[in-house]
Amino acid sequence: MKLLYVCSHNRCRSILSEAVTNTLAGDILIARSAGSHPAGEVHPMSLKYLEKAGYPTEGLKSQSWNDFEDFEPDIVITVCDSAAGEACPTYFASSIKFHWGLADPSKLEVNADEQEEAFLACIDEIVERVQTLRGIIEENQDKGDLHKVLLTLEASK
């Protein structure tokens, strides 16, 4: 099953989500990430704290959702509020779409210890959600059932 994480700039939350998903659920999900208005580079702290938490960062890059027209994701998850409000391209029309609101640790103006804490907390939240998502996918192989369960999960957050 293919999953695409989307945020506006594809430099932090969607990148974190891609790395965590491919590590924890790479046997059942192929995760990628993209931005509606990509920054063109991954936030350096995203890479730093992924590595610190034990996740590989090789191959992670900031890219446009237009680069994924041929990817044909089964699931599209927006991870920032601004991307959630944007209309997805028509080539994602058949994808199951839902939203995970994640706070952006890269936007905080705090000291280094607090920034590390914020990044690691975001990664922990993604880990929890990916583990839940994995269980749901394993139990709901029918796409219609999967869509209903995922929307219920979204509403409960």
SSE arrangement:
Blueprint: E1 2-7, H1 13-24, E2 30-35, H2 44-52, E3 75-78, H3 81-84, E4 96-99, H4 112-139, H5 143-156
Parallel strand pairs: 1-2, 1-3, 3-4
Quick take:
The protein has 157 residues and is of the alpha/beta class. It contains 5 helices and 4 strands, in the order βαβαβαβαα.
Describe this structure in words.
This protein has 157 residues and is an alpha/beta fold. It has one domain: Response regulator (Rossmann fold, 3-Layer(aba) Sandwich), CATH 3.40.50.2300. Helices cover 43% and strands 13% of the residues. It has five helices and four strands; from the N terminus they run βαβαβαβαα. α2 crosses α4. The longest helix is centred in the last third of the chain and has 28 residues. The radius of gyration is 15 Å and the shape is globular. It starts with a strand and ends with a helix. The model has no long low-confidence stretch (mean pLDDT 89).
Task: Tell me the total number of β-strands.
Answer: 4
Largest sheet: number of strands, sense, barrel closure? 4 strands, parallel
Taking the alpha carbons of the first and last residues, their distance comes to: 23 Å
Mean pLDDT: 89
The strands making up the biggest β-sheet line up spatially as: 2-1-3-4
| Main CATH class | Alpha Beta
CATH architecture: 3-Layer(aba) Sandwich
The CATH topology assignment is Rossmann fold
Which homologous superfamily in CATH is the superfamily?
A: Response regulator
Output the keywords.
157 residues, alpha/beta, Rossmann fold, four-stranded parallel beta sheet, 5 helices, 13% strand, globular
